[in-house]
Write a structure and sequence with these properties.
- The protein is α+β, with helices and mostly antiparallel strands.
- It has a single domain, classed as Glutamine Phosphoribosylpyrophosphate, subunit 1, domain 1.
- The strands form 2 sheets. Strands 4-3-2-6-5-1-11-12 form an 8-stranded mixed β-sheet. A 4-stranded antiparallel β-sheet has the order 7-8-9-10, with helices on one face.
- Helix 2 runs antiparallel to helix 3.
- It starts with 5 loop residues before the first strand and ends with a strand.
- This is Isoaspartyl peptidase.
- Keywords: Autocatalytic cleavage, Hydrolase, Protease.
- GO terms for molecular function: hydrolase activity, acting on carbon-nitrogen (but not peptide) bonds, in linear amides; peptidase activity.
């Protein structure tokens, strides 16, 4: 089967409005989204796989300090960075993920390495860090992930309430979903978690079926938002299941599942790609950093909900 390739990316959803962002932050985020779209699109335009495309796009976002993943990750309550990521191949539902890693420059590539070079799906903490070093992935000093703005956000949070964390999820998560010219889909997600998190908290991003999911029988999904609620709903798998078993279109499935998240008190967004090349995004928030590109020539980025 030959279809027109497609790619969708996100850089987090939340209280993202024109009043909150400075013009410089707006421009920087759009440039980062555009660069990630270009990286992923280049793979797909050359006949590459959806899996390679989502990894390429997310790596760009992980290296961009405008987003909460890799460089620019949020700080824990203790002033450290703990990184989570996942990747999934819709062809055979192989998946890899990592949680609480601290030294890998591009956690999404570590997640792929877990998928391809280990018998496991999810590695966490010091074991995942050790696996990364033993398998030769690029390491980074902890200072690589630090930015002054993320430190300021933690200090502001703690000055208001010593037990607080970023319940608004204002700085969450990056991800990508794609369909390649062969009709295969893939998804990848990466995050620095939430500002002020404690006790090794892990959200939905590295959990297969919650924040990340891909199945050629249905679609690929990457999520961002209130991780605890996304886990309880099983958002990624739920969207795919509605498509498989109820025959819903990806937009309807995404909107319906996010409405369920909202009913349970959560907010956020999701991006979806289907094996026929169809793509969608959905959000219950004021904004979501996002972009989409297709083999038909579409290439656009958006931030605020009213941008369509």
């Amino acid at each position: 089967m030959s279809v027109s390739w497609s790619l969708v990316i996100h850089g987090g959803a939340g209280r993202i409005t024109r009043e909150v962002l400075t013009p410089e932050q707006d421009a920087g985020a759009r440039a980062g989204l555009g660069a990630a779209l270009t990286a992923g699109s280049a793979v797909l335009a050359e006949g590459g796989t959806a899996l390679d495309a989502v990894e390429a796009a997310v790596r760009v976002l992980e290296d961009d300090p405008h987003f909460n993943a890799g460089r620019g990750a949020c700080f824990t309550r203790e002033g450290t960075n703990e990184l989570d990521a996942a990747i999934m191949d819709g062809r055979d539902r192989c998946a890899g993920s990592v949680a609480g890693v601290t030294r890998t420059r591009n956690p999404v590539s570590l997640a792929r390495h877990v998928m391809e070079a280990s018998p496991h799906v999810l590695l966490a903490g010091s074991g995942a860090d050790r696996f990364s070093a033993e398998h030769g992935l690029e390491q980074a000093d902890s200072s690589w992930f630090h930015t002054d703005e993320r430190r300021r956000q933690l200090d502001e949070l703690l000055s208001a309430d010593a037990d607080a964390f970023d319940s608004d999820m204002k700085y969450g998560t990056v991800g990508a979903v794609a369909c390649d010219a062969q009709g295969h889909v893939a998804a990848a997600t990466s995050t620095g978690g939430v500002t002020g998190k404690r006790w090794g908290r892990i959200g939905d991003s590295p959990l297969i079926g919650a924040g990340t999911y891909a199945d050629d029988r249905a679609c690929a999904v990457s999520c961002t938002g209130s991780g605890e609620v996304f886990i309880r709903v099983g958002v990624g798998h739920e969207i795919a299941a509605r498509r498989r078993f109820a025959g819903e279109g990806i937009q309807t499935a995404a909107d319906t599942v996010l409405a369920e998240v909202k009913e349970l008190g959560g907010t956020g967004g999701t991006i979806v790609a289907a094996p026929d090349g169809a793509i969608a995004w959905s959000m219950t928030t004021a904004g979501m950093y996002r972009g989409r590109a297709t083999g038909a020539g579409e290439h656009r980025v958006a931030i605020y909900a009213d941008e369509g």
